Inverse folding.
């Protein structure tokens, strides 16, 4: 069994699961990263102890899915935008010292890609791209059946790419893909486009509620986001030629608001050969994907899947 940690900007979940992706127990708490690293880590450690105390059997490893940038093999967290103050945190070492178990750390986009590759919509395919669409926006790449991290574990930081000259200020620059593809970005986009209608405190689920109620302004916001996401999908398809682009987070929950426009632009912008080979689909694991993804660093790096 594996103890999995899904550490995000909004919530943190601690689970115990099997190498078959079955979740046996689970507990979560609001991350509230504005508290700083140490208070979050202290609450995380207490939560881990609680979950371990009720474990139905021996836990062999701790597996972590967390936002990048990261040094994956050393398990060092390097200032992810959704966890302010987590600057060069040696998370792997801290967890190993506290719990005396092997610890494996992975970028949450990569972990999501692995989860869908092993157990979900990517099963049976050798080339998939998984997009995290939550507080942030990132990608996990499975190429020729293997996870691709790049030269220094930074492959997949697609949210940092500037897609427009103007747009929400996310991931350090205005007009980044994170500004159009993340929940944070879409909410900021609504305020930028219609500042008298929505304040800076608007969140994407409120925006989606307005869309479902027939708001023309909300539709325009999602269509603009969808336009840029469609270009994003086309770039991915033309560059990597995957069989599946799999959408997590918002792509599963509110995709009806922006996917029609994104699909339209994707078909217009990408090569015909790549659109024929590639389908854009929601994550098959649904709301359980974060829990299952949290197990996948150990499955991939620890080679536990085949044991």
């Amino acid at each position: 069994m594996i103890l999995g940690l899904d550490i995000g900007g909004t919530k943190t979940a601690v689970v115990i699961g099997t190498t078959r992706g079955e979740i046996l127990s689970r507990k979560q708490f609001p991350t509230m990263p504005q508290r700083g690293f140490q208070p979050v880590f202290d609450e995380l450690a207490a939560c881990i102890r609680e979950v371990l105390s009720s474990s139905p059997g021996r836990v062999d490893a701790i597996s972590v899915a967390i936002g990048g940038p990261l040094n994956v093999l050393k398990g060092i967290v390097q200032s992810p935008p959704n966890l302010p103050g987590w600057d060069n945190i040696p998370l792997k070492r801290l967890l190993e010292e506290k719990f005396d178990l092997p610890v494996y750390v992975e970028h949450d986009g990569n972990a999501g890609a692995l989860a869908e590759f092993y157990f979900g919509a990517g099963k049976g395919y050798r080339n998939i791209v998984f997009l995290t669409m939550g507080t942030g926006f990132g990608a996990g790449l499975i190429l020729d059946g293997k996870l691709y991290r790049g030269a220094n574990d930074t492959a997949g930081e697609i949210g940092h790419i500037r897609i427009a000259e103007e747009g929400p200020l996310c991931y350090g620059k205005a007009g980044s893909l994170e500004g159009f593809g993340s929940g944070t970005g879409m909410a900021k986009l609504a305020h930028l486009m219609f500042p008298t209608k929505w304040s800076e405190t608007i969140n994407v689920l409120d925006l989606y509620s307005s869309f479902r109620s027939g708001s023309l302004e909300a539709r325009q916001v999602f269509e603009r986001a969808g336009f840029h996401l469609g270009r994003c999908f086309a770039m991915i398809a033309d560059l990597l030629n995957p069989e599946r682009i799999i959408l997590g987070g918002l792509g599963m929950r509110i995709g009806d608001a922006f996917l029609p426009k994104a699909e339209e632009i994707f078909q217009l912008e990408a090569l015909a050969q790549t659109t024929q080979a590639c389908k854009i689909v929601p994550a098959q694991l649904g709301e359980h994907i974060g829990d299952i993804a949290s197990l996948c660093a150990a499955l991939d790096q620890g080679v536990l899947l085949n044991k």
